[in-house]
Amino acid sequence: MKRRKLNQTQRDFVNGLLFASPWIIGFFAFSVYPLISSLYYSFTKFNAVTSPEWVGLDNFIDIINDSLVWKSLGNTLFMVFVSTPVNLFVALLLASIVCSNFKGRGFVRTAFFLPSIIPMVAATMVWIWMFDPTYGYINNVLSWFGINGPAWLMDADYTKWALVIMGTWNTGTTMLVCMASLQSVPKSYYESAEIDGAGKISKFFNITIPCIAHVLVYQAVLGMINAFQYFQQVYIITTANSGVKGGGAAGGPENSILMYPLYIFRNAFSYLKMGKASAMAWLLFIVVALMTIIMTKVTKKVTENAGGE
Amino acid sequence: MNKYLSVQTKKIIGKILFYGLVFVLTIIFISPFLVMVLTSFKTNNDAFTIPVKLLPREWVAENYPAALAAIPYFKYMGNTAFITFVSICGQLLVTPMVAYSLAKIKWKGADIISGLVMATMMVPITVTMVPMYKIYSMLGLTNTYVPLILPAFFGKAFYIVIARQFFAGIPNSLLEAAKIDGASEFQRFYKIALPLCKSVMTTIGIYAFLDAWSDYLYPLIFITKPDRYTLSLGLQQYMSEYSVDWARLMAAAVVFVLPVIICFAVFQKNFVEGIATSGLKA
To answer: Chain B residue closest to A282 (CA)?
Structure first.
């Protein structure tokens, strides 16, 4: 029997599939399978030991009636709508500084970027120490100026603002993206605006911002998606401060930094309500998926503006 | 004349303001590093004495040996190094293969898979962690490094995207010439494409190093036995008591962070390129 030889298209298909197969297998094992089974789990009740038992919509009813869910959602929305814009503003400010020409630019760029690669555990611990109400550096520096600093991570009114400050320290990667887009604005635009007598501020708002708007929107949506998932830092903070007077328990003082994903984690691994945790997680997934769709739309615009690839 | 002067003065004032802003921001951004290092050279009493002084009243190095002896630091470092090394190997093995398939092989799946790769980046870890925990514990693999290492051998979306962009830039004519000479797809990948992407592989290796070295969530979920801890988990042991020995903790943190800083110092260019070209990480 003669073996039929594969034609070029078929051979490419086989090769393509073969080369991509590790990722495809991983996709099913580490994304598809967990997504589907957590959807199933969200209608069940189980802990680490027992096997899932169907309970219908009980978990979702539980979620709606749980005031901590709403509290944590509010905390997370604070990060999404306050921390994200602040971070983007800081990243843009840092990027425009680093894009200008001055002595010591390389050092300054390193200083701005380096924090974003520091292991999160170490970085968070340093910030907990700096935010210490009595012995921390921040309040002591503030006292030089006669300011009586708040208790930061120990005071429910200030905990989230402390997180916002912590977040701005971590904008190095966004800064690099902003930097790349700032540098891609054609110089000729500025030159012709100068001929028309435009000042620095007018140039920034009339040329720079419109030229990089698509990047900013993209980064904003990406930042929001990440903010919805923000929780490892608060896990470390709440764990570290749980033994300290005024530190609050599982969610910080008055649960003020109990983020939605942190509450998922606590439900899953501290309270062992894995069904409820899965249900909460799926609701989060739907939100993030919607935002991702928005972002893909923006991405398309990004590539179009860049002349297409 | 007057007008000229005022323009000149304006410029000078602007410059002073600019440098002032840059100076203050730089100080703010490096201050956590300074705090970490300065605290690590204080005695614990010194750290808890009012008024708080920026510099140690007395410079001591004793926190370093004390911190490294207080917990099985070198054991944790060895655990972390092992996981990191294996993860880097896995990523470097798989990433170029997948990226090559998506960028250089003309097949129907390439576009679909590329889209899916992007999509998986957005799947929240909180959604996948419960099923993954369940399956690993059913297989008896919690408290082993399998859950931390295994994903590396199936490629990570962020790395694949970076590598794919790089491969896309390799001229097709190079590969086609080799094809006419009778080179198989694998030979074209291995002998032609791969040697061209040393720099992007370095970048990915660095990211894989950073990600594995700093990883906190996976060890937190899967590792509960103290002798299996990674450094990320181990650092919390300084905090588990009622009072935190901040001087020691900061010393331990410095040792933990140092490899990352060294890595950055050596490969600075790769960091900037990877992020700036992909525009992905936020």
So the answer is: B127
